[in-house]
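Bench notes, afternoon.
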Amino acid sequence: MNPTAHRTAPPATRPAAVLLAVLVVVLLAVLPLVGSATTARAAVRDDPAPSRAEVFRALSLERQPADYVVLVDVSGSMAKEGRYDTVRQTLRTFLGGLAPTDHVALYTLGTTVVPRYIGAAADPAGVLAALPAAPERNGYTDIGAAFEAGLRELERSEALRVASVVLLTDGENEPPPDSAFPLSTTAGWTAALHERAAKVATRASLVGYALPLATGATGAQLLRQVVPDTRELAPSSIQDLGAYLQRAGDDTRLRQARLLLAADRGKGVSAAWTGPPSPDLTGGEVSGTVTFTSRTAKLPLTVRDLAVAVPGDVLGVSGMPDTLTLAPGESRSVEVRITGHLDAGRLGLRESRQEEVRLRLSGTVSSPWQSTFGADLPLEVPAAVDPAELPVRLSATVGSAAALPLLVGVPALVVLLVVLVLVRTRWPVLGGFLVVEPVFGGRVPERIALRGRRVRIRPMAGGSGLVRGRRKLFGRRESVILVVRYSPDGSAGRASSAVCAPDRRVVVAGLAFSYQRSAAGRPGGVR
């Protein structure tokens, strides 16, 4: 025993060791919680992509059956290395992975081509039981006849939209002498079979899968001449056959999924304003709904980083979730709140107003199935919500009730003040007397007291007139002059006017008018 294994630390270091142990225990307890919280947040943010099997189940591929033509070589060479037994075992797994509604046509090819089973894939054991217990001891390998039998099955009237031809052989094409597909005319019969396969491909997705089980097998090259879309799955050993057969089955299901999802290609999420047609924003806040609709029939969609805003800084919008998940064809309505006020204009008058604003939507649209299939099945989901802007017509009562009285009253007051100033300036209050007498005498002069800004006169000589004052500068001194308008018969047609300065005399229509001021500057009396 190593004596150093029992060596203890000096007493002086024990408190530090205890503290270190406590810290380790705390960290071990806390770190899983932190990690789990981070993982939970990540799970909320990035949902794990479903497996292909889950997607196939979601698409109900069992309701979309496919055709499988399985051609199994039973020539004598298949007895080598246990090839035939391995084929039987792996076919059990392969057939068990098919949907019960899939259609299977199982043929053995050797000296002759024998249909062993034709029907639904619901009973894998029954299909396998139709195979011979062992391959032929000797014999030929008539690959051309097997191709013809498989195409005949795919040409039936009730053939399905997805078809696969699976060839399992370990040898070269060695048709019997009486075969309708001899080696000497290979180019001729492969061309004829190719033409028939092309017709099948016009109504179905046709793919060939060749699994050569030994070096030198030529079945793959021949199958490609008949079915151009042939994929050679060459296992490195007979033990790998099961995995390669599984790849053929998965690829067929992928083609089924591609057909089902073809109608969803290029389709995404649409948005529409489904709230009130003209929401009232008078109170500064209004609620409405934006409805998001998936336009796909099979494909689930998710909108991430979803946001909505109104351009500018006047109105705000809230209530939009960060992430929105939509099942195929589903519509979901989200309630949003618009806050703020409509512009009352420069005058701020109280009025009912409508204004169209645009809700700007942003977010990234995707499908969780995109990462499931990757480049094997491009889904081409539009990344943006369509349309990116939603027009909404808002209504509101804006402005102030006091705006109109102020708008009308203030200018009116200003005008009134201007008028008063002009009146006071242009037409002063009169004082003194207006002396009226005939030009040629014969009557006692008539004295009329001047009061107010206008004085109407009716001289004893007849007629009528109007007297007003006007300010005028005489040198540096301002004085009031009279504007006398007089008509001898009172009609406007015979009226004449004249200006009479203080202590001066003017003649208007045969009457003499004199402006006399009293010594005190006030009227000396009234007529």
